[in-house]
Each structure stands twice: as C-alpha cells, then as structure tokens.
Amino acid sequence: MAESAEDPFDNWTVQARKGVLELCILNALERQERYGYELVKTLGALPGLGVTEGTIYPLLSRLRAQGLVTTRLEQSVEGPMRKYYALTPTGRASVGPMNGYISDLLSACREIRRRPSSHDHLDPLR
Amino acid sequence: MAESAEDPFDNWTVQARKGVLELCILNALERQERYGYELVKTLGALPGLGVTEGTIYPLLSRLRAQGLVTTRLEQSVEGPMRKYYALTPTGRASVGPMNGYISDLLSACREIRRRPSSHDHLDPLR
DNA sequence: GTCTGGTACCTTGCATAACAAGGTACTGAT
DNA sequence: ATCAGTACCTTGTTATGCAAGGTACCAGAC
Asked: Which pLDDT score, from 0 to 100, does residue B58 have?
C-alpha cells in the first residue's frame, strides 16, 4: 500500500482530462457517427490522452442518459455487434457552447498571468 | 431531495475546471506572489470561473504539500494576517509543461473533429 | 475440437477534485 | 455592542477518470 502519492504531474493530467474528454467525444461525433471501440482506439492513440475502455464506455452511457447522443446497434462482419453513437439535436447544440467555454477558460488562464493585481492592494508595510 | 440531476452543462463546467484551475493559480503566481483571499477575489471575478474559498484554499494547501509553492505570513494593516504564496523552483518548472499539456489536449480535441476514421473500417454492409 | 488473439461491449472499486456550507478570528465604523 | 469586511480553514456531497476484471463473438492455428 501507500503507493498513493504518484508523480504529481501524472496525477494532475488525470484531472485535466475531465471535461475535455467528454468534449473530445462530442467533437468526434459531430461529423459522423462512430462506435465505442472505434472511439477507444482513436482517442487512446492521441498523445497525452492514453484513455482506455474503462473511461470511454461509462462516459458514453452518461452522454446517452443526458440525451446528448443516441445509439444504434449494427452487425459487423468481423466480430460482435457494434454500438454506433450519434449526436442528438440537443447534443449538437451543446458542442459549440462547450468548445467556447473551454476556450474562454484557457484564455482567462493565460491572461491572468499578466494581471498585476485585481484591487491594487496598498503595498504592505514598507 | 432528488435534486441531483442539475443542468448537464453546469455539471460539466464543474468538471472542466478541474486541473485548469490549478494551472490558473500557478500562472497567477508566476510573476508575483499573492495571498489567498486575493486569489479568491481575482479568480472569482473571472467570467465562467465563479470560484469560491472552499475551492481555492484546499487547492493551495495541495500545491504546498506537493512542493510547488511556499507560503509566508505577513501582517496586514486592515485585517487578519495574509498568507502569501510564491512559486518554488519546482513549481516554476512545472508551469510550462502544464500549459503545454493543456494546449496540446485542446488541439487534439479540435483536430479529432475532422478525422474521417482512424482505421478506415470496411464500410459495414451496403 | 480447442486454443489463442483480436474485436466489441460492460461493470466494480478506488483516488481525486470542485463546491456549498459552515466555522474562526481580526479590524474599523455605526 | 453589533455589524460588515477582511482573511483563513475544514467537512460532506457529488462527479469523474481509470485500472482491473468480466462477457461474448469470430477467425485461424494446432
């Protein structure tokens, strides 16, 4: 035990993926439907996004429960049935605002670096 | 009770902040030290980042525990003591990679939209 | 026949983080 | 004395990513 304190950077990247990953999937579905395993392989291959089935499948279920995607089963000639995911109108309407939110967040994150001080605190003693 | 299912978008933004918020603080400290309450007010005022004390203070403690920041107490002429936070060398060395990681993540997130299919699956029946 | 490996789906349990709500304490004005 | 503003901190809830494990289908090797 006591192997909890991993590399702080690795630990941070896990948190940084939250939310972004969901957006990745919605973006991936914007132009075409895709099946789960395809998303696992596609997203897992992206550098910095070493994502696995244990992450993707629960996320897809959540998106369906929220009404952002619909699913459709289809036979495959080379294996089990595939479950294709496609955006609903609600899902399609969400992608834009979500991309905008993340962009704004990052802009603010960068801009804050060059902000001297919000309320210009009277310089503290001396 | 049973007020669990809030607005999915609001819920998502909470998750999207994870990690980014930590980076915001490190960026804010890159050019100058700041005290906790100042960060609460500065970050809380940013649009889309309605962040409060319950979020910032635990985060700052975590950063100190990880050795990314140091603290220094200082008397204030108008209230209780202020705890100033400053980057350590380790912290300073982390800011660049973290900004890079987030940028790459977002780039991948956008690029995935125009990717036809990763392994060009033989078109399924018909 | 039965193994092995690839495809394809799903669930459980753990660690981590944001946030609301609440708590403490110092200062100056009404 | 009471209130508001400054300034710090903690606890409990909820939501997420992910490793690990499980099921099932198919094709080719043995």
From this structure: 95
